[in-house]
Amino acid sequence: MPLRALVEAKGDHVVSVCIPAHNEQATVGWVVHRVRRFLVERLGLVDEVIVIDDHSDDATGTVAAEAGADVVTAADVLPEIAGGGGKGEALWRSLHVSKGDIVLWCDADIRDFGSRFIIGLLGPLFTDPDISFVKGFYERPLTGAVGGGRTTELMARPVIATLFPHLSSIVQPLSGEFGGRRELLERLPFVRGYGVDIGLIIDVAETVGVAAMAQVDLGTRVHRNRSLDDLGPQSLVVLQTALDRAGVRMANPATLVRPGHPPLVRGFGELPPLSTTFELMAGPPAPPEPGPPGPSGRRSRLRRSSPRPEREGTAARADASTNGAAGPAPTDPDPMPA
After folding, report:
1. Is 218 helix (H, G, I), strand (E, B) or coil?
2. Least crowded by CB within 10 Å, which of 7, 25, 165, 274?
3. Which residues contact 139 (CB under 8 A, 6 or more apart)?
4. Quick one: which H or E segment has residue 4?
5. What pLDDT is recorded for position 330?
6. Which of 316, 315, 329 lies closest to 115, judged by CA?
7. For residues 273 and 106, what is the distance between their CA atoms, to the nearest angstrom?
């Protein structure tokens, strides 16, 4: 789809781009700058850019604000519910403070960030009312192939193949570039920490079905690569999330024992759907009016808008030009110099 047509397709949608950031002063300013200058000011495709400063101890918040983002300190957003830091907590908080009916997330550590990351995600949501959730995938120059990092290939993909094979077509289940319609997102719980990505795709498929999910080829992505010392705890939380969603009993908290490191304890937890958050804060709800029971399912906290879908099927794919066909991503249409 031509860029002009995408702008016209925006209609009255309000789009929020949310960027969770923890100690990302080296890259967050560039990410914000690209979104603000091209997608907000020139094209009007994005209405607000929010950086959730997740307990940084560097200049992340200052750099993001100078680049034009609305910076929100994570600890200030519903602290009585969200508690400490972590990716899942930051995403949940950003959903609460944003105003868009379409909410997109992207990571703050992308070194080659371009407007294609946002344009690609918006295409299916603007042009297909049956799509409620979009996930990006990309080529990682470190590996030279379309695929995920070590946590994806060694943990997320095998566990999906074992417990959730209907999601095996998702190229990068842990990618940080994704988004969807608020009416869906506010009905989903957000797993704390790094389990949030796999938890969301499982819950989205459970709630609206894989046919309502799209994938977009975002081209290449260069970002900071983490050490095995960082990836072990991440993988543990991914596994805990998958086991929880599959209804498998697990040790909670679990203790990760690694040679040369002290034991690391990780507990599984999640934040409630925002649609129920203030009900929880207000206390027990009033008894319901007599009437037929609502829909039921494996996880009662998920509020479905339609009957439980069949598990067969694959998520639709589109490239970042939003033409609806799989294929290589186009060059970044942003005319600003790198």
Report:
1. strand
2. 165
3. 145, 146, 219, 220, 221
4. helix 3-9
5. 41
6. 329
7. 21
What are the chain's domains?
A: 12-240 (3.90.550.10)
CA 276 vs CA 273, 279, 280, 282, 303: distances in Å:
6, 5, 6, 10, 10
Q: Is the separation of the CB atoms in 124 and 142 below 8 Å?
A: no
Closest CA relative to residue 185, chosen from 309, 275, 118, 121: 275
Q: Is the pLDDT of residue 282 over 60?
A: no
pLDDT in tens, 115-174: 889 999 999 999 999 999 999 998 766 544 444 578 899 999 999 999 999 999 999 999
Alpha-carbon distance of 172 to 149, in angstroms, equals 9
Write the CB contacts of 258 (distance below 8 Å, at least 6 apart in sequence).
Answer: 232, 264
Question: Which residue type does 300 have?
Answer: S
309, two tokens: 């879908």
pLDDT digits (tens, 9 = 90+) for 71-107: 999 999 999 887 788 999 999 999 999 999 999 999 9
Q: What is the pLDDT of residue 125?
A: 98
Question: Which two tokens mark 6?
Answer: 């995408």
Query: How far is Cα 99 from Cα 47, in angstroms, rounded to an integer?
Result: 9
Strand, helix or coil at 180?
Answer: strand
102 forms beta bridges with 15, 181
Name the maximum alpha-carbon separation found in the chain.
63
225-266: per-residue pLDDT in tens? 666 677 888 999 999 999 999 999 999 999 999 999 999 999
- With a CB cutoff of 8 Å and minimum separation 6, the contacts of 236 are 254, 256, 264, 266
% of the chain exceeding 90 in pLDDT: 66
- Does the pTM surpass 0.85? The reply is no
Q: What is the pLDDT of residue 230?
A: 73
In terms of Cα–Cα distance, which of 246, 279, 241 is closest to 88? 241
- Helix, strand, coil % in the chain, rounded to nearest 5: 40, 15, 45
